[in-house]
Specification:
2 domains, 0% strand, Tetracycline Repressor, domain 2, 76% helix, transmembrane
């Protein structure tokens, strides 16, 4: 064990952690996206469940997402200490030990899956269990340190929540829930690669084979453009399904026009120009990507909410 790791464990052993440190283990910003997309999947699904069941289901899905975050921080503690973006997380900061993070992650994983099964149904619980397994084992333990396609395949973990929400109501999977999964799945690579481009040498220093580290920044820009174009086809095509409608179509046309324009701007960037100019474009694209997913799912929610009043849907 390295000196840094020993020092971190020693600090955590003194009991310096506060509630906020344990909450940070759950990756609350990621959890908020999980909660929102799962809630949209639940509300857009045909049929209904009792409001208390819906509340409990979303709560347990959030807990499951947080459990995944804690286990990710436990396993990635070594690289989190190296990267500027993550070195202030609870484990590298020395406020929570790796053992505590592991115990919290395992306990919350089991709790969330069992309680979702009891509160809703076991199809939704099985999807939640698979999501946790996929994120922790397939992505964190295997893909992340092995292949530059890590975020492409691993992005599936973040795409399952709307399917889980849908299954809470219907007890199954449908073309609509698969399309919501696909929307998030295709969004993840350009969103994350844009972040990588302006994080400079973080991933290289940590030994993580992200695409820009293994194949260079030009190849990464090419990939961002290709995935953005494919994403636009999926996103706009969803307008003509059961979860779409005129509200969603208008939103999708505007957002995808902006997103494709942003990807082209990044793709056309001359690597010889100042880094400040390039990072400005990449940060703008990354910021737009956050709004992109939120507004697409917001439009799906609007269609589902207004349809009974004759304002949504086709």
């Amino acid at each position: 064990m390295s000196d840094a790791s020993i020092n971190t464990q020693a600090k955590a052993a003194h009991g310096d952690a506060e509630f906020g440190d344990y909450f940070a283990l759950l990756k609350p910003r990621v959890m908020s996206l999980v909660v929102f997309t799962a809630a949209v999947g639940l509300l857009a699904a045909p049929g209904s469940v009792h409001p208390f069941v819906a509340f409990c289901a979303i709560l347990f899905i959030a807990v499951g997402g947080g459990a995944s975050g804690a286990l990710n921080m436990w396993y990635d503690a070594d690289i989190d200490r190296v990267m500027a973006r993550t070195k202030k997380r609870p484990i590298p900061a020395g406020t929570v030990s790796e053992g505590e993070a592991f115990a919290i992650g395992i306990a919350l994983s089991g709790f969330s899956v069992v309680m979702l099964g009891l509160a809703a149904n076991w199809v939704a619980a099985a999807l939640l269990a698979f999501t946790i397994f996929f994120y922790v084992v397939i992505y964190t333990m295997w893909l992340k340190r092995w292949t530059p396609q890590n975020i492409v395949i691993g992005g599936a973990a973040g795409a399952f929540p709307p399917m889980i929400g849908w299954a809470v109501v219907t007890g199954g999977i449908s073309i609509e829930s698969l399309l919501m999964f696909t929307l998030t799945f295709m969004w993840t690579p350009p969103h994350f690669w844009a972040l990588c481009l302006f994080m400079k040498s973080d991933y290289k220093d940590a030994g993580v084979p992200m695409l820009h580290v293994t194949h260079g920044r030009r190849v990464t820009r090419n990939h961002i453009l290709v995935y953005t174009l494919l994403l636009a086809v999926v996103a706009i095509g969803m307008a003509f399904t059961g979860v779409g409608g005129p509200i969603y179509l208008t939103t999708a046309l505007i957002l995808n026009g902006l997103f494709v324009a942003g990807a082209i701007s990044i793709w056309r960037r001359d690597e010889e120009v100042s880094e400040a100019d390039g990072y400005k474009r990449e940060k703008a694209f990354f910021a737009l990507s956050l709004l992109y997913l939120f507004l697409h799912f917001g439009a799906i929610l609007a269609e589902a909410t207004l349809a009974p009043y004759g304002y949504g849907g086709w």
